[in-house]
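Lab notebook, bench 4. Still working through the backlog of constructs that have no structural model yet. Next entry is a single chain of 124 residues. Request: give me the structure tokens for it.
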Amino acid sequence: MKNLLKYIFVILSILFLSCSQDYNKSKTERLLIKYNWRLINFVDYDANISAEFRPVDFYFFSDGTFMKIYTAGNDTIKASWLLSPDGELLTIGSNTFRITTITSNVLSLRYGNLEMFFKTIPKE
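Model written out:
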């Protein structure tokens, strides 16, 4: 009887963990696509400073395309984006970022010792 309970516990744990990863990925993907994101802060933890940056907006589209538009000068960069199966890593072009926070108001992406903080902006 104890062995049966152990097997049931293991099976339920595996099912729960796999469903949880799918939920995290779909929630993260939904938030990335639903909002447009404006870079508001760029922190270099090695130097312990907020770095200077050009004002820029990030746009994620459901077909896997990505646009980065610099608001001063209207320079546009296009690439593809992809989430890892667990929804914790975001690859944009050839760069992979760790998603440290994502809500309907805030997104933070970490690349090594650099972290970028975004806020949502209205869709046009």
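Notes after review: DSSP finds one helix and nine strands in the chain. Residues 101 and 108 are 5 Å apart (CA to CA). Flag for follow-up if needed.
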